[in-house]
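User: Let's play a game. I give you a shape written as tokens, and you guess the letters that built it. Ready? Here's round one.
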């Protein structure tokens, strides 16, 4: 893969600053002035690369989804026939948790709440896209009730990431992985 061009680098620099401001001050206080200061550039440069806050948020959420999608694509590529157990082990792995830490801004946006309907809808769309990807994998693996199990996995992923962030021990995470595999297999038996 080649080096990103200057325009892409500037957009990344702005999005990195946007993420830091959201994490530090919250989405509601992420003004373009603050973002420009954080990105070490002048405010008109922000407008040059992003038409407005809406476009910047879209780009940020696309970045979040792209990180998850790339991780899931790598998982699928490394498994001949992904099954529920391997998928659970993957979403509970340190590798996947690193992706979630990169996407900490998404969890911060959810936790901050009080968003306009359009912002909430955009976050919901990211969640649904990720959920649909997981359900598709479960369907492909021939699992019974892939929608129900996919939803359970999404809830577990979110809870697991928060538990890891709060410092629950790795042994507890491994135990939860085994328990989830057992519960999921019981829920999918005809």
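Assistant: Ready! My guess for every position:
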């Amino acid at each position: 893969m080649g080096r990103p061009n200057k325009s892409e680098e500037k957009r990344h620099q702005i999005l990195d600053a946007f993420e830091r401001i959201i994490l530090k001050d919250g989405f509601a206080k992420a003004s373009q002035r603050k973002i420009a200061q954080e990105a070490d550039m002048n405010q008109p440069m922000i407008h040059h690369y992003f038409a407005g806050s809406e476009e910047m948020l879209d780009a940020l959420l696309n970045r979040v989804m792209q990180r998850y999608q790339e991780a899931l694509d790598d998982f699928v590529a490394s498994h001949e026939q992904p099954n529920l157990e391997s998928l659970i082990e993957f979403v509970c792995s340190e590798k996947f948790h690193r992706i979630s830490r990169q996407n900490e801004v998404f969890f911060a946006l959810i936790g901050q709440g009080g968003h306009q309907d359009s912002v909430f809808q955009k976050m919901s769309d990211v969640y649904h896209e990720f959920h649909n990807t997981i359900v598709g994998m479960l369907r492909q693996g021939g699992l019974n009730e892939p929608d129900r199990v996919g939803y359970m996995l999404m809830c577990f992923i979110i809870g697991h990431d928060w538990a890891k962030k709060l410092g629950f021990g790795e042994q507890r995470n491994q135990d939860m992985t085994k328990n989830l595999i057992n519960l999921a297999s019981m829920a999918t038996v005809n």
